[in-house]
Amino acid sequence: VIMLSKLVYLLLATGSNDHGVINGGAPVSNVKIGIADTPLGTPAGAALLDGLDVFEVPSSNDGHPLSVYGIHSEGQTLDTGRRPVLMLHGRTWSAIPVYHLLGGPKNAAKNEPGRASRSFMEELYDSGVQPYTFDFRGFGGTPHDSNGCVEPNVCVHDTEDVLRFIASRHGLDKSHANPDMALEHDEMPVLLGWSQGALVAQLMAQKSPDLISKLILYGSIYDPLVRYPRAPLYTESSTPKVMEPVENTFDGAIEDFTVEGTIPPEPARLFAEAGLTSDPIKAQWTHLYHFNNCDPARIQVPTLVVAGDQDPYAPLRVQSELFFNLGRGADRTWSIMSNADHAVHLLDGRHRFLKLVTAFAQNSMN
Predict the structure, then answer these.
(1) CA distances, 37 to each of 33, 144, 207, 249, 257 (Å)
(2) What is the pTM of this model?
(3) 145 near 137, Cβ under 8 Å?
(4) How far does the chain reach from its first CA to its final CA, in angstroms?
(5) In this structure, are residues 130 and 138 in contact, taking their beta carbons and an 8 Å threshold?
(6) Which of these, 58, 82, 61, 62, lies nearest to 70 by C-alpha position?
(7) Facing residues of 336 across strands?
(8) What is the DSSP secondary structure assignment for residue 239, as one 8-state letter?
């Protein structure tokens, strides 16, 4: 899987003969690609999708296929009365190991010690909400685009497209243009972003607040003292630099688990295995200076800020800066999860986090 992913990465990142450029601008693919061309298209990767519905949503910007995941969300199984929640993953790992670890009926049927489901998708659904998630470009089931890198503003635009897709499936319309829409359904999806995904969620909320009803900034790495540098305007070489693929590692996959006694060794190991299956090659982020536009004062939707009390990436000092500078025109809640680090939703005590997120999402603003 790693060798195959390296080949795909290099082809897309260098712009093979199957890719063109319009007006010297953004590369455009002439070849149909999708989840089958990603690590989740392999037998081992497809096994991680057990129990999920998989949708392909084309970007409205360039048509790039985005892999979106739901649960009991197809056809007659979709209960449009449930509050939809879209979850964004973080910097390194696909949404599948992050939000659907050990999920699905096939894993449940094994009934093996240490393999009980830690799927936050399943837990949210069982709590009465309708969860969705998707992979940014170059993660899990969403192929790299011909740029070969992950750009924050592109992630924001893709999130907008997925939110519109979800709203359409649930018959939601914030403009009140549909007179037949029930009042209890009259709220757009809730958006949850974790870690670096919380920065993407924050930018989306600042740019297009009409697409969401509420915002959850979970383990956000926002820090007003961090300014990401721009690339130099001029360089000696005119040849675009191609980033060499870097393999993800087992140790990198389990580094978020830091508080003793919060997760047993077996599920931590299985998370690493799932992560290395979905993302054997590290996604290369670029143009991180887009995150410099994160401004809590520009958030004008009800917002929940939540993190573990021992989260090394979201210290309480910075979380307080984020919370107290949120826009004054909307409700806001700050919650600190005790005895927890960065990946609260995967720990043994995750039921507290589940109840918090569910209550916030389901609480009507009417």
Answers:
(1) 6, 10, 32, 22, 31
(2) 0.89
(3) yes
(4) 49
(5) no
(6) 82
(7) 307
(8) S
From residue 145, how far is each of 4, 26, 59, 63, 278 by CA, in Å?
16, 10, 11, 10, 17
Tens digits of pLDDT across the chain (366 residues)? 444 444 444 444 433 333 332 222 333 344 578 999 999 999 999 999 999 999 999 999 999 999 999 999 988 888 888 999 999 999 999 999 999 999 999 999 988 888 999 999 999 999 999 999 999 999 999 999 988 899 999 999 999 999 999 999 998 866 555 555 443 434 799 999 999 999 999 999 999 999 999 999 999 999 999 999 998 888 887 776 777 889 999 999 999 999 999 999 999 999 999 999 999 999 999 999 999 999 999 999 999 999 999 999 999 999 999 999 999 989 999 999 999 999 999 999 999 999 999 999 998 644
Rounded-to-integer distance, Cα 17 and Cα 15, Å: 7
CB-CB neighbours of 204 under 10 Å: 24
Give me the residue label for tokens 């949850």. 192
Token pair of 201, please? 């969620």
* DSSP per-residue string spanning 74-93: SGGG--TTSPEEEEE--SSS
